[in-house]
Amino acid sequence: MTWVPTGLRARLVITFLLVAVTASAMVAGLGYQIIRRGLLEHAERGAVADVRETLSRITLPIGASDVVWPSDTTVTDEDLGGVVQALEAPERTVIVTYGDHQSSNAGARFTMTDVPDQLRWQAARRLVHQRVLLRDRPWLIVATQIQRAARDGVLRPTGLTAYVFVPLSEEQAVLSRLKAALAQAGGITLVLAVTLALLSARRVLLPVRRLGAAARALGAGELQVRLPVRGRDELAELTATFNETAAALEDTVSELRTMESMSRRFVADVSHELRTPLTAMTAVTDMLSEDAEDLPDDAGEAVRIVVREIDRLRVLVEHLIEISRFDAGAATLRRETVDVGDALADCLEMRGWADRVKLTVPVGLTFSLDARRFDVIVANLVGNALNHGAPPVVVSARVAVGGENHGALEVTVRDHGSGIPEEVLPHVFDRFYKAGTDRARSVGSGLGLAIAKANAELHGGSITAERCDPGTLFRVWIPKQ
Amino acid sequence: MAGILLVEDDPSVRAGLELALTRQGHSVTAYATGEEALDHVRSRRPEIAILDVMLPGIDGVEVCRRIRRLGPLPIILLTARGDDLDVVVGLEAGADDYVVKPVEPRVLDARIRAILRRLESATPDRLTFGDLVIDRGALKVSLAGKEIHLTPTELRLLLELVRHPGQVLNRRYLLRAVWDHTHVADSRLVDACVQRIRAKIEPAPADPVYIHTVRGFGYRFSPP
């Protein structure tokens, strides 16, 4: 199918108009022609009959003797005038010729020069008529040589020829009015056709547009969208198909969502169930590690492994619970004005990182954020830098001035290690993502960066990771409230 | 060294915490239910109570509320992480502090010691602010001649605010000074404690005249 640079509506309207214009032009044209012919024929017949009758009634001096016409010299100009008078009517021009004599009526507008030659020739034999256009007006010329029966009863031409110019302007006026009326009717038909075309285009296109809007809504996730099915045409069929598809999609998605929420609930439940035994174990790990010194070497080592792994398990469970709260949409934000420098210093100090991390923050920098969540973000990023990167680890914070992030808090955490490979960067925030074998899995839960990201996003912000030379730079953006 | 009342329904957690706290030099009495614990509070007068929130029968928050009715016994709640509602309800019910399970014994010990830290009564003076009289020597507060019973944490917070009249103290400062928290902890501790003090000393707690909130920063003691 060739591409037409117009919409369906334009195409429909154009087609409709073409059909309407062609049909009405044909009807009007044919009608006009028929009426025109009828009118003119009627006028011609009338004029011819009139001339014929008039001529048959008049008496002429011609033919009174046996003189061969038209050398009959007894015919005078008065005789010709009499013939002219008999044929005369308002508006008409009458010319009568007889040999060298010629006579015409008083109001004559034409002369013999206006009579076509062919007509003159034909007029010598019979009664002829012809429509001509003279001085921009239509005329009917009726011409004939008057014949008389001689004494022997044979019709003979008299040499007297009459030319009658009958005006057709009345018929012309009727035809003009008819033309105007037809044009008017054509115009009305055109307007009606346009209106009808637009209406029917609307009738066709409205369901199409509605379908389009519904499909868009479906794409945007409004799976419950349905359309009323009206009528039994192809569009109704299409609408019904759309409804069935949407229903099927809704079913599938809701099934998937149920499964997903079940699996999330399961993770949350498992994490919560793990917490109780972990609490009991955590309570006694300090005692175990204190007493491990007094145990034989291998037993002491075994105890240290248990203590270390319990600690790891504790972090993992805490992280699982935290992330399942985000998944359940139960995470809430409690913003308050916080001194960013204090918050960062406290975060590092509490975890014993203060002397391993360089902190650069403007004095007195305050920002509205959720202190606990901010602490989690920074702790996870710094912990990641300390565990996987190399010193020096530098943490800095500032509020952006100008640009698209104007007024937002920017916190960067930079290490100077070997850096994260380019192909791994997009996945560092994925849960449990293993970045190759060289990166030790013995530290961290595998959820720390995912949790940091979720917390930043809860603030309406973001975290990005980029390669530096050397090391990696994590950048946190937290927009103004 | 303190007489601790521990209420925890899970036997292993109860045994573990009892062991650890005993090792840290405290004398611990542990119960599985709130009812037993309340009997103990009435008869034995422990120094501090550590309550698990999820308990069979009457839950930890209700136990907390009932203990508060009996007197100013300091209370630490054991909560599950992220159960924010437990924390808020618990603090409103009168708990002084909370720790999140699984808790490290060192952390719990630090919280206990912070709460039981002896109040310094170095300045033996009486401060009078209208109806409110604070005796810093005897560590007593009275309103219109009637003594008001504040928990040690509430008293410490009030004294801290009174020590800096007219000055805005932020929540971080108050957390460090009163609870000994060395990190950005939950400022709801401060908010809940201020609410409880207001309920006791303010004529109209919703429209306070002694302790004013400075939105986004903290609190200011400025008597009328």
TrEMBL record, chain A:
Please indicate which superkingdom the organism of origin belongs to: Bacteria
Reactions catalysed: ATP + protein L-histidine = ADP + protein N-phospho-L-histidine
- Please name the CDD domains in this protein's record: HAMP, HATPase, HisKA
Q: Does the keyword Cytoplasm apply?
A: no
Transmembrane domains' residue ranges: 12-35
Q: Which residues form the HAMP domain?
A: 202-254
> Localized where?
Cell membrane
Protein name as catalogued = histidine kinase
Residue ranges annotated for the Histidine kinase domain, each copy included: 269-481
Principal subcellular localization:
membrane
| Record GO terms (molecular function) | phosphorelay sensor kinase activity
GO CC terms: plasma membrane
Top EC group: transferase
Q: Which Pfam families match?
A: HAMP (PF00672), HATPase_c (PF02518), HisKA (PF00512)
UniProt xrefs under SMART domains: HAMP, HATPase_c, HisKA
* Record bears the keyword DNA-binding: no
Question: Which UniProt keyword terms apply here?
Answer: Kinase, Membrane, Phosphoprotein, Transferase, Transmembrane, Transmembrane helix, Two-component regulatory system
Organism equals Microbispora bryophytorum
What's the Enzyme Commission number for this chain?
2.7.13.3
Automatic annotation (TrEMBL), chain B:
In the record, biological process GO terms are:
regulation of DNA-templated transcription
Q: Where does the OmpR/PhoB-type domain lie?
A: 124-223
Q: Pfam families from the xrefs? A: Response_reg, Trans_reg_C
| DNA-binding region(s), chain positions | 124-223
The 4-aspartylphosphate modification is found at: 52
- Read off the SMART domains from this record: REC, Trans_reg_C
SUPFAM superfamilies linked to this entry: CheY-like
InterPro entries, A to Z: CheY-like_superfamily (IPR011006), OmpR/PhoB-type_DNA-bd (IPR001867), Sig_transdc_resp-reg_receiver (IPR001789), WalR-like (IPR039420), WH-like_DNA-bd_sf (IPR036388)
* GO MF, any single term: phosphorelay response regulator activity
The record's keywords, sorted A to Z, are:
DNA-binding, Phosphoprotein, Transcription, Transcription regulation, Two-component regulatory system
**Entry coiled-coil feature ranges:** none
Q: Which GO terms describe its cellular component?
A: cytosol; protein-DNA complex
Q: Which domain of life is it from?
A: Bacteria
Q: Name the chain's protein.
A: Transcriptional regulatory protein AfsQ1
Species this chain originates from: Microbispora bryophytorum
